[in-house]
Amino acid sequence: MTEALWSETAVGQGGRSTLLCHAAWPQPDFEDEEAAADINWLVALVSGIRSVRSEMNVPPKAVAPLVLVGAGGTLAELYKDFVLRMAPVSEAEALEMIGGVKGLAPIRGYRNLPRGDLRALAFAIPRISFLCLLEGRPVAEAEINPLIVKADGVVAVDALLALKGSDAAGRA
Predict the structure, then answer these.
(1) Omega before 88 cis (within 30°)?
(2) Cis, peptide link before residue 146, omega less than 30° from 0
(3) pLDDT digit string (tens) for 19-39?
(4) CA 70, 71, 73 angle in degrees (round to 5)?
(5) Which of 123, 127, 59 is nearest to 91 (CA)?
(6) Which of 48, 133, 150, 169 has its Cβ near the most Cβ atoms within 10 Å?
(7) E-state strands within 36-79
(8) Is 76 or 107 the better-scoring residue by pLDDT?
(9) 81, 45 in Cβ contact below 8 A?
(10) Rounded CA gap, 111 and 113, in Å?
């Protein structure tokens, strides 16, 4: 109920204050800046996931396979620079995702830096995202980090594949 509606009700007009809420919103006070940054990152991630679920009409308890694209390294963690989409994604969607990550500007040729092979990156992203469509949906999680974008092609340096119902994740 909004304060405007509250003030129109009998309770709101019964001699009490016309305000529904008297206290100020609580302000978190973090002494640990790293913990605060982690919490803010988590809030942004959950917000992004909720937005994707809402846009794709995924019910709250349904499993929603997501694709996350972001730049690697410590700066990616610091700036929380990533794009989320519902899996699977197409190459065109992958190119849009790549364009939405500010930290990938160098491989897009920012300030005349050598361009990376964005087509190869956009080719790789959907291939990983299609793992969610395997018969029986056995994949719980798949990750390539880092995926090095070269002038001609991409190289997966480390990969993780976790199957549903398994405690162990396979690294390649």
Answers:
(1) yes
(2) yes
(3) 555 666 666 677 788 888 888
(4) 125
(5) 123
(6) 48
(7) 66-70
(8) 107
(9) no
(10) 6
User: pTM for this one?
Assistant: 0.66
Tokens of 80: 């929380």
DSSP-derived pairing of the beta strands 139-144 and 169-171? unpaired
Tokens coding 31: 């002494």
Q: Which CATH number is associated with domain 30-171?
A: 3.30.470.20
- Residue pair 6/14 in contact (Cβ under 8 Å)? The answer is no
Ramachandran angles phi, psi of 122, nearest 5°: -70, -25
170, exposed or middle or buried, with CB in 10 Å at 0-12, 13-18, 19+? exposed
The tens digit of pLDDT for each residue in 111-150 reads 999 999 999 999 999 999 999 888 888 888 899 989 999 9
Residue for token digits 């070269």? Answer: 150
The two structure tokens encoding residue 167: 């405690």
